């Protein structure tokens, strides 16, 4: 509450100086000085007057000047207050709408392929990296197989009734054998028929306990460690990431920050948390810098919106991640429109 009051208490001149500093930073990524601002101010004021206003804004925590130069940059607090109180988000342009809608033309019914196209279009439009979380698939499991890759690495393969095949590499219990892998697979296939993966995960502990005398201890451990790869609300296979290279196109990029972000995106950590970020509020949410618990070490911003199925249940999310100087006013409506469009396609509604 106190932070919002800061913006409310600013006079017109201070608000204009603050807005122009932020807008300049979002456009160029560079500090802006008092002389530059003086040329564009609505009222004719001296550079010294503007410099004094900038110093006041710095004392309030809205601006910072990172170097010995007189140029100022917005702080994370400054960006947050700008986004919440001063940003003007325009409508999605006809060109942007057309590009997003084209990804849904000639839809083959393959949700994954459609969302892959959406993600590619989103990264191209926003010049950031796009994140699209697919809905969790609920087709029954048809077959499960364990494959040994090395003493400390194994593969669990799931074939679903709709023909989809997913696999994960996991760390099996030490001392596993080919026979324990066969026993684990045979046990799972016997109890999996007609059950979704979520059903299987929920009931597997009871099944193991009921069959413990017949089930080898090693096989039981294999089942537990193998199915753990699908534990929780989602898996890394559900997150589509496109446009990582866009993050390197910015000449002002901090390479250490970009490397950290690439590492996060490559490992696709905390995927369930990505959806959780979107679920705690309707519409688009903006996370700036350390507000973003997924990528806080990278000093980046995330714009994310959930999408819903026909039952109005949140089943996935779309988002864009990039430097804190994202063009929020343009990207927010694009993410919002994309999420609504994907929701209509997922739920079978046209519009």
Explain what this protein looks like in three dimensions.
The chain is α+β, with helices and mostly antiparallel strands. It has 3 domains: 2-85, Arc Repressor Mutant, subunit A; 94-136 and 236-347, Beta-Lactamase; 141-230, Enolase-like, domain 1, CATH 3.30.390.10. The protein is 46% helix and 17% strand. It has helices spanning 2-9, 12-28, 34-40, 47-59, 76-85, 94-102, 111-126, 178-192, 197-210, 217-227, 255-267, 271-279, 328-347; strands at 63-64, 73-74, 129-133, 141-150, 153-160, 165-170, 239-242, 285-288, 300-308, 314-323. A hairpin with a 4-residue loop joins strand 5 and strand 6 (165-170). Residues 114-332 form the Heat-inducible transcription repressor HrcA C-terminal domain.
Supply the number of structural domains.
3
The fraction of residues assigned to DSSP E strands is 15-25%
Secondary-structure element order, N to C: HHHHEEHHHEEEEHHHEHHEEEH
The CATH level-2 architecture of the largest domain is identified as 2-Layer Sandwich
The number of helical runs is 13
CATH superfamily of the largest domain: GAF domain
The number of distinct β-strands equals 10
Radius of gyration over all CA atoms, rounded: 25 Å
Largest sheet composition:
5 strands, antiparallel
Q: What's the CATH topology name of the largest domain?
A: Beta-Lactamase
Quick one: CATH class of the largest domain?
Alpha Beta
Sequence stretches where pLDDT stays below 50 over 5 or more residues: 231-236
Structural class: alpha+beta
How would you describe the shape?
A: elongated
Mean of all residue-level pLDDT scores: 80
Q: What is the end-to-end distance?
A: 39 Å
- Strand arrangement in the largest pleated sheet: 7-3-10-9-8
Helicity range:
40-55%
